[in-house]
Design a protein that fits this description.
This protein has about 375 residues and is an alpha/beta fold. The protein is built from 14 helices and 13 strands. The protein has an eight-stranded mixed beta sheet, with helices on both faces. Strands 9-8-10-7-11 form a five-stranded mixed beta sheet, sandwiched between helices. Helix 2 packs across helix 10. The longest helix is centred in the C-terminal third of the chain and has 20 residues. The protein is globular, with a radius of gyration of 19 Å.
C-alpha cells in the first residue's frame, strides 16, 4: 500500500436509518480509504494543450485498475492528452474517490460499480457520469482446503468480504440467498458467517484461522492462494458470458460539459491502453506491477501476479446490464433502496472514439443520457 504521507478518509457506517444510502458508497475493492498524490509527476507531452491545463485522475493500486496503472506507466494516456498534463491521485477505496470527485479535487476516476451507483444516487444524478468501462472479473471465492472442499461446505463457516455492502459483499450475499441459506445482511450472522475484513489484513486473518475463506478481488485472492488457500469459485462463472463490470471510468458532469475534448482524448488513451494490454499481456503485467511498486514501494511477487492476471478482462465496454444487476442484488439483500439509474451513463464520447478506431460501439442498457 502507499507508504507516503496520506490523508485518512475512512468513513464508518452511519446510524441504521441512513444505512441504505451509505451502503452503496462502500468501496468496490475494500483496500482502505486513503489517498495520495503520485510523487512521480507527469510531464505534459509535446503537442497542443487541450481546453484544460490539467486533468486530475483518481484510481486504485489494484490490478483491476490496470488500465490506469499501465496507461500512466507507459505514457499512453499522457500522449493522447498532449499539452494537457495528467495528474494522478491514488485512492484505496470508493468513498474517498467519490468525495474527491464531488469536491472537485479530481475530474476523472477509475472506480467500481457500487460507489458509482451510490455517487450518482446521493447527488440525485447531478455530479457523475460513467463514460467507459475498464475491467471485468478478477473476483474469486478462495477457501481453506482443509476445512472446505465443496460449495456446500461453506455453511457454518466464516467467509470474509472486503466491506459491508461493497461489490463483493453484495455478490456473496446474493450467492448465499440463491443457495437458499439465510444471513442477516447487516450483522453477517446466519447460515454462513460473513466477516467484513479489510483486504489488506485478510491474509493475516486467514493465516490465524480467524476466517475460513474469502470472496475477494485480485490481487488479494491470489495472495491467499499463495498462502495455501484454494480457489473454489470464480465469480465470472456466475455471469452471462462470464463478464461483469468491476471497474468503470467516471467523470464529473461539470468537467465533461466544460472540457469534452479532454474527456474524449482521455478515453482515446484508455482505449489504446486496453488494446496494448490485450496485445502484450506479459509486458502489461510487468508494467502494472512496476507502477504498483512505484506507488507502494513493493511489487507483487511473481507467484501472486501470474495467478491473478488471467482472471481479469480489460474491456472498453462498461457492461451496463451487469451494473443494473448488481444494484438489484443490493436491493434484494436489503442494503440499498431501489436506485434510479437513468442517465448514469454517457457513452457518446466513448462510442465516437471506438467508431474512429474501427471498433464496435458499446451499449448503455437503456441507462444513458438522452
Amino acid at each position: 500500500m502507499p507508504a507516503t504521507t496520506r490523508t485518512t478518509l475512512r468513513r464508518g457506517l452511519a446510524a441504521a436509518a441512513a444505512l441504505p444510502l451509505l451502503i452503496g458508497a462502500l468501496a468496490s475493492c475494500g483496500y482502505g480509504s486513503e489517498s495520495k498524490n503520485d510523487e512521480k509527476k507527469n510531464v505534459a507531452a509535446e503537442g497542443d494543450k487541450l481546453s484544460a491545463d490539467t486533468v486530475r485522475l483518481g484510481d486504485f493500486p489494484n490490478l483491476t485498475h490496470a488500465t490506469a496503472l499501465v496507461g500512466d506507466q507507459e505514457g499512453i494516456l499522457q500522449k493522447e492528452l498532449g499539452g494537457t498534463k495528467l495528474v494522478p491521485t491514488t485512492f484505496n477505496a470508493g468513498p474517498s474517490e467519490i468525495e474527491a470527485l464531488n469536491a472537485g479535487s479530481i475530474d476523472i476516476g477509475f472506480i467500481g460499480p457500487s460507489p458509482s451507483i451510490n455517487g450518482y444516487v446521493k447527488t440525485k444524478g447531478t455530479n457523475l457520469r460513467i463514460v467507459g468501462g475498464s475491467a471485468s472479473g478478477g473476483v474469486k471465492l478462495v477457501v481453506n482446503p482443509a476445512k472446505i472442499k465443496t460449495l456446500d461446505d461453506l455453511k457454518g463457516k466464516k467467509i470474509a468480504t472486503p466491506q459491508l455492502g461493497n461489490t463483493q459483499d453484495v455478490a456473496f450475499l446474493n450467492w448465499i440467498s440463491e443457495k437458499g441459506w439465510k444471513v442477516d445482511a447487516q450483522s453477517g450472522k446466519g447460515d454462513v458467517s460473513v466477516v467484513r475484513t479489510d483486504n489488506k489484513v485478510t491474509p493475516n486473518a486467514y493465516a490465524s484461522g480467524a476466517i475460513d475463506g474469502a470472496w475477494v478481488p485480485e490481487p488479494t485472492a491470489s495472495k491467499l492462494v499463495s498462502d495455501g488457500a484454494k480457489v473454489l469459485l470464480d465469480e465470472s462463472d456466475l455471469w452471462p458470458d462470464k463478464k461483469f463490470v468491476i471497474t468503470n471510468i467516471i467523470v464529473s458532469q461539470k468537467f465533461l460539459a466544460a472540457h469534452p475534448d479532454v474527456v474524449e482524448a482521455f478515453l482515446r488513451g484508455a482505449v489504446k491502453t486496453n488494446e496494448w494490454i490485450n496485445a502484450n499481456p506479459d509486458k502489461a503485467k510487468a508494467s502494472a506491477n512496476a507502477k504498483l511498486k512505484d506507488l507502494s514501494g513493493k511489487a507483487l511477487g511473481a507467484k501472486v501476479i501470474d495467478a491473478a492476471w488471467p482472471s481479469i478482462q480489460f474491456t472498453n465496454d462498461p457492461l451496463a446490464a451487469t451494473l443494473q444487476a448488481q444494484a438489484d442484488h443490493a436491493v434484494k439483500a436489503g442494503l440499498l433502496k431501489q436506485p434510479e439509474l437513468s442517465g448514469i451513463y454517457d457513452l457518446k464520447p466513448l462510442n465516437k472514439v471506438l467508431k474512429a478506431a474501427g471498433q464496435p460501439e458499446v451499449s448503455d442498457a437503456g441507462l444513458g443520457t438522452k
